[in-house]
Amino acid sequence: MIFQLLSESLSMAFKELTGNKLRTFLSLAGITIGIFCIISVLTVIDSFEDQIRSSFSKLGSDVVYVSRFPWGGGENIDWEKIIKRPKPSLDDYEAIKKNVPSARTVSFAMEVLGKEVKSVSEKIMDIEVFGPTHEFDDIWQFDFFKGRYFSPSESHSGSAVAVIGAKIAEDLFGTANPIGESIKIDGRAVNVIGQLAKEGESLIGITFDESIIIPLNYLRKFTSTKKLLYDPLLNVAPAKGVSLDQLKAEITIAMRAARQLRPAQEENFALNQLSILDGLLDQVFKIVNMAAWIIGLFSILVGGFGIANIMFVSVRERTKMIGIKKSLGARRSAILAEFIIEAIVLCILGGLWGLLSVYLMITLVAYVNPDYVFAMNIKNMIIGVGLSIFIGLIAGFLPAVRAAYMDPVIAIRNS
Question: How far apart are the first and last CA of the chain?
Answer without folding.
Answer: 29
